[in-house]
């Protein structure tokens, strides 16, 4: 009889532990948010996470708080503070060691893509004037190879 009670209790604890682990780690929602990265800080002693705030466009009225559980993603995102980013995240059922239910998995710097879009627009306008293209092309080849690479990417 004691063995049956012990087995039932042990099995109940294993099921409860499995459900708890699932509720804390398995996402029930996934999404993407874009905005300006306003704040990112590393918090915690035993279980460190990065906690951040994204400005969605209207100051303090439209901000979104998030957590980053992956140390590598957090360290790379720190360098983009103050820039426009697109964050891909999982929404968890519960938060445990972190401040929010939103776990950022990856990100893209969208500031750079806007700048390259503007360069491509300028290239398309300049193509209408062959003489200007010739003069600017020579200058870029001689003194501005980094800009020339961006211009050539527009032609692909």
Structural write-up:
The protein has 156 residues and is α+β, with helices and mostly antiparallel strands. It contains five helices and five strands; from the N terminus they run H-E-E-E-H-E-E-H-H-H. It has a five-stranded antiparallel β-sheet. A hairpin with a 5-residue loop joins strand 1 and strand 2.
Quick rundown:
With 156 residues, the protein is an alpha+beta fold.
List the helices and strands and how they pair.
Blueprint: H1 2-25, E1 27-43, E2 49-55, E3 63-68, H2 71-78, E4 84-92, E5 102-109, H3 110-126, H4 130-143, H5 145-154
Antiparallel strand pairs: 1-2, 1-4, 2-3, 4-5
Low-confidence parts: none
Basic shape: elongated
Average pLDDT reading? 83
What order do the helices and strands follow? HEEEHEEHHH
CATH hierarchy, class of the largest domain = Mainly Beta
Strand content: 25-35%
SS class: alpha+beta
Q: How far apart are the first and last residues' alpha carbons, in Å?
A: 76 Å
Fold-level CATH name of the largest domain = OB fold (Dihydrolipoamide Acetyltransferase, E2P)
Helix content: 40-55%
Helical stretch tally: 5
Tally the structural domains: 2
Q: Considering the protein shown, what is the CATH homologous superfamily of the largest domain? A: Nucleic acid-binding proteins
Whole-number radius of gyration? 25 Å
In CATH, the architecture of the largest domain is Beta Barrel
Count of extended strands? 5
Major sheet: arrangement of strands: 3-2-1-4-5
Largest sheet: 5 strands, antiparallel
């Amino acid at each position: 009889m004691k063995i049956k009670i012990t087995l039932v209790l042990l099995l109940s604890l294993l099921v409860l532990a499995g459900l708890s682990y699932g509720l804390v780690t398995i996402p029930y929602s996934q999404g993407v948010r874009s905005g300006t990265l306003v704040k990112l800080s590393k918090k915690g002693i035993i279980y460190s996470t990065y906690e951040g705030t994204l400005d969605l466009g209207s100051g303090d009225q439209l901000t979104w708080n998030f957590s980053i559980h992956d140390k590598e993603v957090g360290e790379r995102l720190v360098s983009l503070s103050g820039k426009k980013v697109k964050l891909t995240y999982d929404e968890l059922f519960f938060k445990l060691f972190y401040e929010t239910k939103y776990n950022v998995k990856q990100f893209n710097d969208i500031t750079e893509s806007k700048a390259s879009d503007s360069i491509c627009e300028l290239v398309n306008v300049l193509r209408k004037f062959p003489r200007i293209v010739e003069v600017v092309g020579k200058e870029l080849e001689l003194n501005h190879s980094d800009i020339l690479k961006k211009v050539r990417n527009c032609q692909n």
